[in-house]
Request: fold
Amino acid sequence: MPAEPAPKLLYCRCAYAQVVPQGVKDAVLQKLCDSGASFESVADLCEMAAHRDPRLKAFASSAPLRIAACFPRVVKGLFTQCGSPLPEEGAEVLNMRTQAADEIAEQMLRES
Reply:
């Protein structure tokens, strides 16, 4: 049986909304960088959705996917608004507004 593919990791800086605590954003980013894992960082998913950035469609179709951003319902809504809803299975959104940086980094980097 083939192994499941490693999830694509997506990190949102939430640069424009300023709703995620700066310390959490910085700590999660540092842990991702220190891990050596491959991940993609974007300035702001909300801005990308507002501009209907085609990368959102690419992200939505690249499950399994783990996203460090803000509230899951908001992130899922952004993708849906752009006509590229996240799949029901295989997409996980971690909330940097309410979860600790260590917890998010651990969940982003876990094996499966």
Summary: The CA atoms of residues 80 and 86 lie 7 Å apart.
